[in-house]
Structures are given as structure tokens and as C-alpha cells.
Amino acid sequence: MNQLFKIGFFSVTLIDFLDILIVAGIIFWLYRALKDTIAIQVLVGLVILIGLQFFAEAISLRSLNWILKTISTIWLLAFIILFQPEIRKILLLFTQNPIFSIFIKSKISEMLEEVTDAAIELSEKHIGALIVFARTQNVTMNTEIGIKIQATVSTELLISIFNPKSPLHDGAVVLDNNMLMNARCVLPLSTVTKFNGKNLGTRHRAALGLVEQIDALVLIVSEETGWISIAEKANLELNIPKENLLVTLRNRLTANH
After folding, report:
1. 236 and 230 in contact (C-beta within 8 Å)?
2. How confident is the model at residue 257 (pLDDT cuts 50, 70, 90)?
3. Distance from C-alpha of 250 to C-alpha of 105, rounded to nearest angstrom
4. Of 94, 123, 140, which residue sits at a domain end?
5. For residue range 43-99, what is the model confidence (pLDDT) as tens digits?
6. Measuring CA to CA, which residue among 68, 74, 78, 69 is closest to residue 38?
7. What's this model's pTM, rounded to 2 decimal places?
8. d(Cα 110, Cα 182) in Å, to the nearest integer?
9. Where in the sequence is the domain holding 43, given as residue range(s)?
């Protein structure tokens, strides 16, 4: 079947050659993604085990093949358990491929519509809110984590959390993609107390304090004025028109996808 060449008793076809190229490409891509982490040492060990297993199977060393297969399975499970952050990084890199961008943008757009509807309703009722959009950095490293939620973002969920009668209404919520990760998070306060001649309240100072430290975007709904504002890159944009809010969020949060 389209034999290209033969090495000893190994017959290499075009399909085999393509298979080897694909596997080599995957291993090289994984190496580049993990090369600065300790996980690369475990990954190299796993690749060596898989290689040994291949040769053991090729020359019919059944006992050795069984042992290597068992060790490889355990090694793979250990890798998944011990290196969850690295695996998450790989998946994020993988989903940033243009092939998947259309699906990611779709999910983000749906989430932003839910957030926009919630922010407008909260604004009309003069209910204060702080909504943090996580980007490349771990927001929880710069906040007091609060209460873990881990639920899909929805208008109803956000409104219920920021309801003044809710035990979770104080502090901020942290969103990551289309998930609401934590509520009642305490953000670091900025030392800036005035912006464009206006005195800043605690919510605005907290939002500004976070974006002074990390790459994030924070949506603020003022309890006093009902204004909807955005904090980003150590800067504030106050009183965004409600009809422009969805487009503004979309432009700022889908630019990196």
C-alpha cells in the first residue's frame, strides 16, 4: 500500500509517514507550550515510555508491552492530576487557533449580552455592582477570593447576587469566559480618590485598584448615580451610554480572541 521504504522488517507507507509527521508536530507543539515548566520533564518521560511500548509491540514482547502500557496509563493520569494549570494553558493556546475563534466569540457574545442586560437593569434600579472580566492573569491572586460559585453567567444570576438583600452582594464577581467563578471578592483599593474632578466611591477605587495591578476589565454600576463605567489599564471610562454598553464590551473583550 504505497510503500515508501523498508527498514529491516518495518514497512513504511505514505500513511505511516503522515502519521509520524502529525505525532511529531503534536509533540513539538506540546514541548513549546510547556518548555518553561516542570511538566516538560514528565511529558518527556511519557513520550519515552510510549516509544518503548511501540517497539515492544512491534517485536511482540508481550509481557514488556503490558508493563509499559500499564505504566503509561498511570503516568498519564498522574500528569493530568499534577499539572492541571499547565493543561489549562495548553487548552487555552489550542482554542486561540483561528479555527475555533468563531465558536469562542459566539460564547463570549452570549455572555456579554447577559452581563449587559443585568448591568442596565441594576443601573435603572440604582443597585451597585462590580463585575470583573478575567483575561490572561489569575484575578484571584490579586483579590480576596470570596465565595466560589462556578456557574454559567446569566442576567438573573447577576441580578440576584447584587440584590442588596443577598448575602453575596458586597464586593465583586469574577467572570472567566462564560463562567461566573467567584462572588463577594474584595478588590485592592486604588490610592486615587479623584478622577476628572469627580470624587471616586469605594467601588470605583476598587475597580481602578485591580486594573492598576493586572490586565483585567471591571464593569462598575454606581449605586448613587446609576452610572455604568468601565475600569481598564489603570484608567476609567465613566457613565457609558446604555445603548453603547454591549458594543463597548464586545470591542474590548473580543479583541484578544
Report:
1. yes
2. very low
3. 9
4. 94
5. 777 777 777 877 777 777 788 778 877 877 776 777 677 666 666 666 655 555 555
6. 78
7. 0.61
8. 19
9. 3-94
